Amino acid sequence: MTIEPDDPRLRFNTLTWADVDPDRHPFDADAVFDVVRALAPAGGVPAPYRYDPRHRFDNAGHDERWNWQRAMTIALVEHYGDWARGWAAQTAGRTADGALVVRWSGAQDSITTPDETLDAVAGALSDWRTFLEELAELFERYLPLPADPRAAAKAWEATTASLVATVAARSGEDEFWHPVCVLALKWFLTVAEVPGEDHDALVDEAVGGRFWSYVSPLGAEVADAAESLAAALTGVTPPPDDAWPDTWPQDWPSRRSTELPAAERAPRILPPPVPDALATWLRVRSATRWEHATEHVTGPARTARDGIARILSNHRYNALDLVRADVAEGGPLTFARLEMWQRKVLAVTTAPFRTTPAYARDGRERYAYRDELPELFEACLAEATDPAVPLPSRAARVYLDVLHFHPFADGNARSAAHAVYFVLAREGVVLDRAAALLMTRWPAADSHGAEGLARLIAVLIQQTAAEQGK
């Protein structure tokens, strides 16, 4: 039976404290391993994910594994209650030696052998229950809150900081901690009997974009969020002489930093803006003399050695088998083809065009995003097979297009290598050597470098043809 991902029984972020309060829901930790085995979905544990270079990505197997996880969740919920929905929330538990370990990281990574998989489910459920019990103890420790507003503000600040720290400590490599943190704060508002139903707005205002999944919170960010929530609930704010200047820590968007009069604030030193490498590349692209950079070259040209394949073999995944199949099929280079190859490169089910700015070289290069970029990129790819432009120039241009459009979340250099391989191979050229092409950096602003790359590819083609003739 297929279970849809949006099935209401799977919704983790709608859990209330009444749903998860350990005092309301009995749990026998000693029996959990036997219970999980008894509840496991019929048909057994699916086969684990294995990369197979001979085949395309196994979408059916991928869907089967995630459907099994959803079926396991529903079985646990029906047996234990709604609180069990959180078993897959990647909340770490302690091993015998005290180390924190996430026992379940999703069906793609955590389904292994049947016994190991069911043990991981049971362990993850137990870890989630332990986390809920820790929260219950923390709530009891801090409640009831003092009646005096200033004392209440301090209590709220301490409680919020403790809650965030508790969640972050259980996050296990900072995975998925943000939604758990938001839920824990809302649960405490409920237990503390904060009036009103708009607890979402209170927490959103306190968090204020400070916390993100996959990023561990800074201590300063935790303190600022705690103070913000306390101020919202009690109306008590720190006195003016307790304000934190804008310069400490540098660029910290703290509430306190805005309380100082403008004349007293030290000027904030902003880093220089990172130029848009994509806009620079598009200017260079339009100014480059692609038709005149090289002479026309025709294939076939290949030897027993495949230079691009040799370099890509250093990566765990590449998609040259798919590229070769598309070359044999014929047709132009399209984003749909790039996306299909990239799914294999990244071992994912989808590889859509990015929808946000992208960065490279530790943030020193920025590739801005505009709504028209996917359409513009598609038009650039279509030019890669235009016979009016010499083959080396077209290969160089598409290689730089993929690098500087930076269409994917990851693996863009490999995508560029696949694109240039396709453009050359469809005209019978497989480079004998490619290190000078793939192992060299080609900046977006270098117009001479763009033409130089075209001439380099022409030389590599000539060298391959010469080796072929020997």
TrEMBL record:
Positions in coiled-coil regions: none
Domain of life: Bacteria
Domain named Fido: residues: 333-462
Name assigned to this protein: Fic family protein
Organism whose genome encodes this protein: Paractinoplanes ovalisporus
